[in-house]
Amino acid sequence: MDESTLRLEFKKLFQRSKIDGDKSILIEGKELRFHSLIVFPRSAFIKGLFSFNEKKDGSVNLENVHSWEVYSLLLEYLYTDQLDEDLDPSLSVELFLLAREHVAPILKFKCAKRVVGNGRLTMDTALDILDLFSDYSCEKLQEDCVRFIQLNFTRVITKENIEKYEALNERLKESIWLGIDKENRTDYSDYISNLKKST
Fold first, then answer.
1. Per-residue pLDDT, 46
2. Where are the beta strands (DSSP E) in the chain?
C-alpha cells in the first residue's frame, strides 16, 4: 500500500472515529471522539490527560482551552500526518500554539509555514506574526517576517500599526533595521518619528 493510500485510509478512520472512537474530549460542550490506539502513541500529552482526568465513560472535559475546531484539526493530523491545504491562517496560528503545548515540533513548523507562506503574510499581519514567532523560537520564520517587513517597511509600519512596532522587543527591532540599506535608515527613522508624533 503506497503512502497516499495509507493516508486516505487513516483519514477515513478519523472520520469513522466520530461513531466508534473509544475515547472522547469534551470542549465547549461538544464531543470529539477518537481511537486511543492511534492517538495515544502519537501524543503523550493527550495520553497524559486521560491518565489523570479520565471519567468512567472514557472522556475528559477541557475548559478554557483552544477551540473544538482546532482540537479536531490536531486529531486529524495525528491520524493522517497532513494539514488541510486551505487551512485558515487564524486556525493555523491557533493550531501552532496547540502543537507547541503538545510538544509536536513537526506540526508546529508546518503550521508556522502556513502562516508565513502562500501570501498569508500581509501588511496587516506581519508585525503580529513576527511577535508570535519571537515568543516560540521559530528563527527561520522570524527571518522571513523580518525580510518581508524590511521590503515593505512603510506599508507594514503605518499609523495604525506603530504601537505594534513599538511593542516589539529591541532585538526584533534591531534585526529589522540591520537589513535596511544605510541610505534608507535615516529616512525610515524620520518616518517612524513622524508616525509617533501623529498618534
1. 92
2. 23-27, 30-34, 59-62
Percent helix, strand and coil across the chain, each to the nearest 5: 65, 5, 25
C-alpha cell at 13: 478512520
Backbone angles phi, psi at 30, to 5 degrees: -115, 145
DSSP state of 173: H
**C-alpha dist (Å) from residue 180 to 25, 132, 176, 183:** 49, 22, 7, 8
- pLDDT category, 100, cuts 50, 70, 90? confident
**Which cell numbers hold the place of 82?**
497532513
- Cell numbers for 52: 489523570
Q: DSSP characters for 66-122?
A: S-HHHHHHHHHHHHHS---TT--HHHHHHHHHHHHHTT-HHHHHHHHHHHHTTTT--
DSSP letters, 176-192, are: HHHTS-HHHHHHHHHHH
CA angle at 21 for the pair 15 and 23, rounded to the nearest 5°: 130
Beta-carbon count within 10 A of 33 CB: 17
* Cβ(131)–Cβ(102) below 8 Å: no
Q: What's the pTM value of the predicted model, to 2 decimals?
A: 0.73
> Residue with C-alpha cell 496587516?
124
C-alpha cell at 32: 470529539
Residues written for the chain:
199
Query: Cell numbers of 185, please?
Result: 535608515
Task: Confirm if 77 and 20 have CB atoms less than 8 A apart.
Answer: no
